[in-house]
Amino acid sequence: MPKQQTNQAVVDEGGENTQTGQGTLDKQAAVEVLNRILHMELSGVMQHFHHRWVSRWLRASRPRAVAIGQHIASLQGGTAVDVGELMEEALAGSADILDEALAHEEERVSEYRKLLEVVAGRSVGLESFARTQIAADERMLAELSVPPVVPRSSGD
Q: Which of 34, 80, 81, 86 is paired with 8 by a 20 to 30 Å CA distance?
């Protein structure tokens, strides 16, 4: 009598489903995608660290800039700094940072979708993980895609 195939999962030594009714999990492909995602996540951590460091540095610069402006005023001089130009540069820099963040999120969600393709129906845990990350990244993409509101000066 021929053996019937079932849709039961096979569990390996690590407790992970490696086979279901949709076939065997390609562990090598899953690990390759996971390694790319890990690289992207660690890159995000480093960017966050860099931005926090820059933010701390900027917080320290503000009081110094105020003190320098006060010294210039006490010498009865006017500042030679074009604040409008500085604001334009800052906004352009912010736009660049947002563009980089958006590109990073788009690339990351693409990798999570690749992971989902590899593990769908083959690993319940990894499939759930991939779907959760895709949902979170789609929310982040929606937030990053909304153009920032730039306050207008009262003179406009």
A: 34
Note whether 48 and 40 are within 8 A (CB). no
Q: In a 3-state reduction of DSSP, which class is residue 99?
A: helix
- Rounded to an integer, what distance in angstroms lies between the CA atom of residue 81 and that of residue 83? 6
The conformation of residue 80, written as its DSSP 8-state character, comes to: -
- Report in angstroms the alpha-carbon separations of 89 from 74, 82, 86, 152: 28, 11, 5, 16
The answer on pLDDT for 96 being more than 50 is: yes
What's the token pair of residue 113?
């979708």
3-class SS at 9? coil
The alpha carbons of the chain give a radius of gyration, in whole angstroms, of 26
Half-sphere exposure of 119 (CA within 13 A, CB side): 24
Q: What is the pLDDT of residues 27-77, one digit of tens each?
A: 999 999 999 999 888 888 887 777 777 777 777 777 888 888 888 888 877
Q: Based on the number of CB atoms within 10 Å of its own CB, is 58 exposed (0-12), middle (13-18) or buried (19 or more)?
A: exposed
- The domains of the chain are located at 28-144
